[in-house]
Design brief:
This protein is mainly alpha-helical and about 475 residues long. Helices cover about 80% and strands about 0% of the residues. Helix 10 packs antiparallel against helix 13.
Length: about 475
């Protein structure tokens, strides 16, 4: 029942926000809709943690893996809705934006709660359609081009993923007698699927959904989309949309690993993960657009998550899932604070943003702290998840790969310091006066920073349980 209430809440919020006449009212409807949806999502998480998987009408299915992603989506959606309310406070007619915002979040919740893998594919496609309009929301030449590029590249990717699903359906019917695409049934019969067909299917699925997840070299849409979307949407794209696609890959990974072994699947993810880390490190170093820089940072972190699954074991998979959550929080803070800086300077160009600590001290300070969190400095939570992934790699004997990850992380850390140092310090433009930002935004940034510190110093028991239970599902101990 919680699943139905969750999804209906978002649809109602979308309709009401669309017809709201005032920007303030539209933003408030979206915010409270997201809060109520998050409440139902957390109720579902508690229910799954206490009593196991939830099945509804044989259409919806939510287990411990779903619970983890429900938790991740709810945190990011509420924070993005709060920031949206402030970000658009001076604009009129935001009903269309807020309706799409609610639909976008609805589609991502749907991805992680459907049982049928065909419907999972449809849900991922809905996320593309909803977010494409949000990428092109400004309706200028560059934003429309970015939206079209996003649609075209992700449509090609999703077509490849569909071909992988068709192959999986073929072996399920021919070799296991399963005439359904329900994940629960395919997972139960994974040991008798044709290994060769499953290998081919998994490659298509990783390339297909990996395109949407931002894995290199299929990531080309991501920097354009992030740079043109409004900052709250950039935070959702980076923090949640990419993870929803990772979720889809994990669902197929569990089935494929039961048929062909975890090693084959991990090697595929490891290859794309290392390529992503290498490409992102270089582009972060030479990037001249602030939001594109943050986009390439997302490519890096998605690559690191994939490498976590490659290293495997409980520690590696725990680290990968924990990193998904940590990245969502850190990247949200970075896009929100950068959004304030960009609004003040009127440009994304890094060379034109100087002395931000003088002109927008609150946002610049948050960006300064967020930069270190994103780079994996202790005691922030990203350090802990990166440490877990690297420890899994060295412990598992992946010395060369783990060393390469360390090298790429070091390059990225240096690049972030170099890029943000120039923006935060330096001489501010003479025509810009210091901005006093509101108290609620200060508290908002502070809460995100404190949560990242808490998760880095001591992971709360409930969060630890959610992630650990999700790890068990991936490793086949739960289903």
């Amino acid at each position: 029942m919680e699943i139905i209430l969750l999804l209906i809440t978002l649809l109602i919020a979308g309709v009401l926000s669309f017809f709201a006449k005032k920007t303030k009212h539209s933003g408030l409807i979206t915010l409270w809709g997201q809060i109520l949806a998050a409440f139902f999502a957390l109720l579902l998480c508690f229910k799954i943690t206490a009593a196991g998987p939830v099945t509804l009408l044989n259409f919806f299915y939510a287990d411990a893996l779903s619970a983890f992603f429900l938790f991740l989506i709810s945190i990011s959606a509420v924070s993005s809705a709060f920031y949206s309310k402030w970000y658009f406070k001076d604009e009129e007619n935001t009903g269309f934006y807020n309706a799409l915002f609610n639909l976008f979040v609805f589609s991502m919740y749907l991805v992680v709660t459907v049982n049928n893998l065909g419907m999972l594919w449809v849900s991922v496609e809905i996320t593309t359609l909803a977010s494409a309009f949000l990428v092109g929301y400004r309706n200028n030449k560059t934003s429309v081009e970015a939206a079209w590029k996003y649609i075209i590249i992700c449509s090609v990717g999703i077509t490849l993923a569909l071909f992988g699903i068709i192959l999986l359906s073929y072996t399920a019917t021919a070799d296991a007698g399963i005439k359904s695409l329900n994940w629960t049934e395919l997972n139960a019969g994974k040991n008798i699927l044709n290994p060769m067909v499953v290998k081919a299917a998994f490659i298509f699925i990783v390339v297909g959904f990996g395109t949407k997840a931002g894995l290199a070299p299929m990531h080309n849409w991501l920097p354009d989309a992030h740079s043109q979307a409004p900052s709250p949407i950039s935070a959702l794209l980076s923090g949640v949309l990419l993870k929803a696609s990772i979720y889809a890959i994990i669902r197929f990974l569990i089935i494929a690993a039961g048929s062909v072994g975890f090693s084959f699947c991990g090697n595929i993810l490891g290859l794309f993960g290392l390529i992503s880390l290498g490409i992102a490190a270089f582009f972060i170093l030479v990037q001249k657009d602030l939001k594109r820089l943050l986009a390439y940072s997302s490519v890096e972190h998605i690559g690191l998550i994939s490498v976590g699954f490659y290293f495997g074991g409980k520690i590696g998979i725990f680290g990968a899932l924990f990193h998904s959550l940590n990245h969502a929080m850190a990247k949200g803070l970075m896009f929100f604070s950068s959004g304030n800086i960009i609004k003040k300077y009127g440009t994304n160009n890094i060379n034109q943003i100087k002395g931000a600590l003088e002109t927008v001290p609150l946002a610049a300070t948050a960006a300064f702290i967020g930069m270190f969190a994103l780079a994996g400095m202790p005691p922030f939570s990203i350090f802990m998840s990166e440490f877990a992934i690297l420890m899994s790699g060295f412990k598992g004997g992946y010395y060369y790969s783990a060393s390469a990850v360390l090298l790429f992380l070091a390059i990225t850390f240096g690049a972030l310091i170099y890029q943000f140092g120039g923006m935060l310090y330096g001489k501010k433009p003479a025509n810009l006066e210091k901005t006093k930002e509101p108290l609620d935004i200060a508290v908002f940034f502070g809460v995100i920073i404190v949560v990242m510190l808490i998760f880095g110093l001591h992971l709360p028991e409930f969060v630890n349980t959610i992630i650990s239970n999700a790890v068990d599902v991936v490793m086949g101990a739960g289903s």
